[in-house]
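Work Package 3 committed the consortium to producing structural models of liganded targets before the mid-term review. Because experimental data for this complex are still outstanding, the team generated a predictive model from sequence and the ligand definition alone, so that downstream docking and mutagenesis planning could proceed in parallel. The input record is reproduced below exactly as it was submitted to the modelling pipeline, together with the SMILES string for magnesium ion.
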Amino acid sequence: MQKLKKHLKIYVNRSLNLASIKSIGFDMDHTLVLYNREQFESLAFHETVKKFVANGYPEELLKLKFDPNFVIRGLLVDRERGNLLKVDAHKYVKSAFHGHRKLDKQERYELYNAKSFKADDFLTVDTFFALSETQLFIEIVDTMRRHPGLIKKSFTEIYQDLRQWIDLSHQDGSIKNRVLAEPEKYIDKDKFLVETLVKLIDGGKKLFLLTNSDWTYTNAVMSYILNDVHSDFPHWQDYFEHILVSAGKPNFFTGNNPFYEVMTEKEGLLKMHRGPLVPKKVYHGGNAILFEKLTQQVGDQILYCGDHIYGDIQRSKELFNWRTLLVVQELEDELVRIERLQPEFERIMDAIRQEEELQDEAQALRSEIGTLQRRLHMASSDKQKEQKQASKLKEYQEQLARKETQLEEQHRLIKDLINHRERSIHPVWGELMRTSLERSRFAKQIESYACLYTSRVTNLRNYSFSQKFRSYRDMMPHDL
Ligand SMILES: [Mg+2]
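The resulting structure, written out as tokens with the ligand in place, is given here.
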């Protein structure tokens, strides 16, 4: 097989044999249905700003502009202080902003790194919906920084208002109705979706849809992306064995809600369901225990693909041993940049190796110097030998001073190279799954919960339906 570009690959945390997977489930929003992020998030942003002003916040807020590039997933929100944090896998805050003001190292240290860090005190930006929400919070914080006294509420109170009104924007139709009115503006059709689904079906996999969206919205957007594309599957429902809407994940995996049959021809009327799930019918609610029982499927024969670590991936894996594939859409552009920056990454690695060599040489000199100093301190009758040792000592000390200067330069060079690479990947936060060269907290979560991860669910088309995905994660540092 031709070597795949990085952004077309599927990455493996836990080995998985696709041949032993019988059933593949999909989340809908941001997994099967991709949104034009800029349009979609700015819609949520502006609809929520309107609710702020309607509820007594200053009209100044209507001037706020949506910046699609400031907030990324995996960041933490400090609601109490109005700060946004990027944390590494060891809970060290590597970068922080108050509004748009970057906190310096000392501030970061005093606020976060000097004490034990409790991630539970903060909110994780882990869904696409949370991106616009966090962006709005940061813009309001920044407005307050620039205009002290304009808003007389604490950051925590503002966040509570924000939560309430953003949820309302999602519930009252302000967002969904606009998406459905102009789907071509808000939804990006993935031209490989049909090919991918058909390839999986031809490979003997049964597909199911498991979404938190309601029937009306699901039916509308799925019709938009899948109806009348393939002659064997004229209607979107033809691709799926089971369709589960309003599932309420993650509670779907923890609760015991019954299934209701959605009377699709009667505009979504619900009827309590008993007995096995009938293929091709649409069900509302339900729970994973019942789903496995009613469809006679077992956990590790199911692969579930979703974009939300907590809602889609963590519970399904932990509680049901479903195999999981996490869609990290933002990796797509980033992996293209990472691939282009590969020579820079190698230069950094070379520079680090050179620094290590310099450190070893400096260490050898320090040890020689120590030995000579100790000898010179001991009384000796051989003045000539003593003189020789003294001049050797001076020579080593000069060499060490030069090495230390070289080391400082090398250290600065590495820092500059890393900074340049990070800024080329994302101007504010650097790489999504790294902070400098360490793994980010987000990367650690992906490692813990997702068997596989990729930037698009349609990357499945690049692999055989009996592909053995092999993990190299179990390599120990001493194996390398
Ligand atoms: Mg989703």
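Reviewers should note the following from the model. The pocket of magnesium ion is lined by residues 27, 29-31, 306-308 (CB under 6 Å). These observations will guide the Year 2 experiments.
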